[in-house]
Structures
1.
Amino acid sequence: MKELLIISPNFPPINAADMHRVRQSLPYFRELGWNPTVIAVIPKYVEMGQDPILLKTIPEDIEIHRIPAFNTKWTRKFGLGNLGYRSLWFYRNLVKKLMKKKKYDLVYFSTTAFPVMTLGPVWQKKYNIPFIIDMQDPWRNDYYLTVPKDKRPPKFWIAYPMAKRLEAMTMKKVNGILSVSSGYPKTLMERYTNIHPDMCTVIPFGGAGIDFDILDNLSLENKLFDKNDGNINIAYIGRGGHDMYFAVKAMFMAVKKGLQEDKETFSRIRMFFVGTSYALDGKGLKTIEPIAEEVGIPENVIEITNRLPYFEAMNVLKEADLVFIPGSTDAQYTASKLYPYILSKRPLIAIFDKSSSVVEILNKTNAGNCVTFNKEESIEMLSDRTYESLKELFKKLPFTPDTNWDEFEPYTAREMTRKQVAFFNKILEQWQKE
């Protein structure tokens, strides 16, 4: 049995998007030959919401270590809130102790708290151990260099140079890169000559059917809408952002056209966008409702920037009449919650760049309607196609999608874990040959 050390600062009960890969894989690592040890940050030091039900999905016999982080009560006085920076010292100290007791074969960073990844080269040199990075989002994000300054994230002027420097330090020593999108390894290979295709793989998040098995046995209140209220309730759970402006506006323009041509149906639409900001509860800036105001359909759109607990969010999807996934103008973007959307077994419409992996998956599984776009076409053309797709879906409501579950099997959590393990074995073999 090989020993795997997993670095996952955001871990259940923390309700964060970047912990799902690890959470979904833990039940299967041992049967595939790897014994996992997880190091996570103590929840009280993480500025994110919690969902204790998430702990039900973690096998009880997994070795989990919890470390503190510097308290934001003090670090924010210096403008520092990033969990990666705040936990760096504590990760280094604990791993030093663990390495004295056990020989680990591989370190696996699966997080968007990117600064902790700088420990990879340190441990590689000191303990002669390879490390793999799971790229779920860009670390150094050049996308925001292409947009006006007022559209950039807060503190971009200091965060970007730091990310650029730290990413370079880390990537020049990395042994393997696992990613949710083919675009991320491609970008890294262009930046760093040491990274080559043989040390990269693309593995999306898997679909965890156990989540919906657990949900079926819970009595959770849907605080957003009554599924029997006579409206057409459309739900999106996930981040917002200016990079989704094109897809979201096309959807809203389609709804506006529907209000003009079929008011009886389209006036019943209520669109809920939930958890659209990564900011602390109550401090998120709305990025969706302003688009609804611009298009002229504010009464049809409700945006809640706060994140819901994970299982409450899944319950909202399950009770929606239709679920919606907007894509980004960044073609590398893939929706991290795609598989829960499919597993919710609700009618689905997505608007994505034609080169996104989401398009291929939805087409293969027949799990929903996918309206595609490219950067050259007009938003009017996209909204017209979206309108036609909505009309098609509304004619059939209520219904359950005729999803091809055989085609979905390769995207399950078990199969995605199998792919991860195959990659671990490959990288370890390469390391041992060097």
2.
Amino acid sequence: MGPKLKLRVIGGLFSVALALMCGSASAEVGVTDDTIKIGMFGPLQGKVSLYGYPINNGPIAIYKEINETGGIHGRKIEIVHEDGDCNPQKTAAAVKKLIHQEKVFMIHGGSCSGAVFGGIKEIKDTGIPFMIMAATMDKLATPAVHNIFRPALSGSADGMVMLEFLATMPGVKRIAVVRHSNDWANAKSSKFMAQIASRGIEVVSDEEMERKATDATAQVLRHKKVKPDAVATFLYPAEAALYTRDAAKYGLDVPILGTNSVMDLMDLKKRAGGLGPVKNFYSAAFVQAPMGDFKTAAYRALMTKHFPDDRPQSLNLYGMGGAYAILEALTRAGRDLTREGLISALETLDGTHAGPMTCKLRFTKDQHEGCVGGTMWTLSADGNSIIDVGAAYRAVK
């Protein structure tokens, strides 16, 4: 082999190696020629697992459906799960594992606000795109953070859905309030409390209830003494059920309102010991109707198709809006997919289909809260189904 030929061969090999190196360097983390790796986390075991797979499986059903049609630009969605256990420290560890070990392209997860906040620093620091699943604490996404998006109601918006509904309830002029003394409850109740007087409603009693309380007698009796027209609760499901049970026990027979954390009213009924304590309970919701309603028939069919061994439930609907936003943004971002490209595409969504949610999604560079409206749910008279009452009060029983 002559010197010139040797040089040409060596030069050619160097060019190939350089191309391979550049191609490797430019490839986005979590993206291959035929897959996009999305991380999910949530409470996957134990008592709080109710808010894990049931919620996560809703988006997964949508991702499976799109995979069956060939994916997005020829790439299929691959899901990687980690258990955050509704615990800030465990969630922080789960987020770090997804980012640094599993090397996911983006994360779509989180239903427990306090736990999600535990992982937020790592998400912010790395800049990985993060679509919040169902966590509502305002400071997770407000003010806007470049790489964090929320399709569901924020905490303060959740509280305002309750307030506007209360303002339309006939004869409601005096209310009692019971809430947890934590950031989650403060996010949901602060704007509510600041604006309630402007709706002509007086707060006649404001009580606190600790997490994992086993008795609500003191709060209920103090409320009963001031004779409110209704009660607003800013409580997690277990404590909301405890309050309604003791309200029924001590004869506090008025409408009780709860946040979207208790919009699974079938679960609330079970926790409270039957229909009696929750027969006059209303919960805020960010999906237009519960599972089983004709409005959600298509999503029920989707769950039955992809998770035939599971019972379709309203929890499946919670994260679907985020999945539709992600798929639309991935489509807009094109084949040359990057994290920054996805973020930019998300910021162009305006009126995007959000599945079973109450509104279409809109994100901008300065607004990463995709939906600011909601509705209210209650149980049917026989307690066997959930009814979408609407944003304003109407008699349905």
3.
Amino acid sequence: MTFQLPNMLTYSRIVAVPVVVLLMLVERPLGNWLALGVFVAAGITDILDGHLARAWGQQSSLGRILDPIADKLLVSAVLLMLVGVDTLQGLALLPAAIILCREILVSGLREFLADVRVGVPVSRLAKYKTGLQMTTIGFLIVGDAGPAFGPFSTTEIGVAGLWVAAVLTIVTGYDYLVAGFRHINSGESR
């Protein structure tokens, strides 16, 4: 199972993380567009790996563990780089911090619940949140190298999307907490 295509796609997303980070340091605008290309390719692998695993009956424990880790590594690294290259500043740091904190919190909760053999499925809203978050981060990676959309720059659209993603992050994080605490409080985790 380790070297089946769905897992290989997940591995490629993990390998993409340092590549995107390095490309974000390349001189603008070339670095922005190259980083976006690798980021989009990594996002496509996120869609494909789970879909192929289910369609081909190749779901594995390794894939269930690595897929969310790969997602969190990619999102976290890029958000931190966006701060490092000054794309995110001031109040725009708040939604990025909310997203990062939620990812850590949900990861810890999922790990605890997995330890006691309780699964918390990904909700449809969480999937929409992830899609919006990835799209928004794409806009932010392009940043000032991108075209204007009417009176708004690519960065402004990215920051606005990041705020919406942060709100969805809070809502879906709350859903996970409620589901998790329901299991903890009911004594199923003992």
